[in-house]
Amino acid sequence: MIQVQTCLNVADNSGAKKLMCIQVLGTGNPSHAKIGNVIIGVVKEAMPNMTVKRSDVVRAVIVRTSKTIQRPDGMSIRFDDNAAVIINQDNNPRGTRIFGPIAKELRDKNFSKIVSLAPEVI
Fold first, then answer.
1. Helix or strand or coil: residue 70?
2. What gap in Å lies between CA 44 and CA 5, rounded to an integer?
3. How far apart are CA 121 and CA 64, in angstroms?
4. Using alpha carbons only, what angle is made at residue 13 by residues 101 and 66, rounded to the nearest 5 degrees?
5. Global pTM?
6. Cα 107–122–11 angle (5° rounding)?
């Protein structure tokens, strides 16, 4: 569960390293985000000479959470860290590579470009 002020790792090569959530997007007034939800965040750490700079406000989709999620088939899954991928307005990733495993729930939420770039889908 990702809420406002949560720091996340960035799992792509867009140039950002750390991201802090400043708003959870969704219908109503969502207080927390799960895997596959879109957030608005601010870049806290970035690599020099890249497209994404420190203090940029970006959209990102959650790809890993430390909180255990329960799947309908009874399997539960948990990752070691909280991670997100920076996306543009068309829900396509701004980077060209994705690092680390991602959850297969992203395929159900129409982030197929992120799923195709990921090295491992769990």
1. strand
2. 11
3. 11
4. 35
5. 0.92
6. 80
